[in-house]
Specification:
- This protein is mainly α.
- It has one domain (about 1-170): Tetratricopeptide repeat domain (Serine Threonine Protein Phosphatase 5, Tetratricopeptide repeat, Alpha Horseshoe).
- The protein has ten helices and no strands.
- The protein starts with a helix and ends in a 6-residue tail after the last helix.
Length: about 180
């Protein structure tokens, strides 16, 4: 697990996957390993594998104090796959569980804007900015600059990031620079 965590922290998700799979081979009920494996799958472009992994983690640990992160990751995967209604449903669950996390508000702003709910998107964007307090969410350029957009992500994931997440933020009113 520690080796997978180090590789993941270094942006080497592809190399972390077998480490987490080894953990799960010895303990298939490790909800945390399922969650971080799902994160790696998202970053390496295997987005269709993210939701089943997170759903299994939720079944194994429904009262996990980090449950909001699992909801967020499911919503995030739905957003990248342009399943906007499902994305909003899961991101709202994530927001209820971790309301002080700016990123969940940012994802929700993007999804709402893509659905055409621009007023709601603007409210979520403002909340993300208020909670963060810095300049990371002031523009698309700032979002991209943070760890290179999707730090260590495969080209497929980066393309989906641009086509959904950033497109939604533009519609929510986030300027380019």
């Amino acid at each position: 697990m520690a080796k997978g965590d180090v590789l993941r922290a270094q942006g080497r998700s592809e190399e972390a996957i077998p480490e987490y799979e080894t953990v799960l081979a010895s303990n298939p009920n490790d909800a945390h390993a399922l969650h971080v494996l799902a994160d790696c799958k998202l970053l390496t472009g295997s987005i269709e594998e993210v939701i089943p992994l997170e759903e299994q983690a939720i079944r194994l640990s429904p009262c996990d104090p980090l449950i909001g992160w699992l909801y967020l990751r499911i919503g995030h995967a739905h957003l990248l796959q342009s399943r906007i209604g499902e994305a909003i449903r899961w991101l709202e669950r994530g927001r209820r569980a971790i309301p002080k996390l700016p990123f969940v508000h940012l994802l929700l702003a993007s999804a709402c804007a893509l659905k055409g709910e621009t007023e709601r998107a603007a409210v979520e964007l403002a909340e993300a900015r208020r909670l963060h307090g810095g300049d990371r969410y002031l523009s698309i350029g700032h979002v991209r600059a943070f760890r290179g957009g999707y730090w260590g992500a495969a080209p497929k994931t980066r393309a989906l990031f641009d086509a959904t997440y950033l497109a939604g933020l533009r519609k929510a009113g986030m300027p380019e620079e």
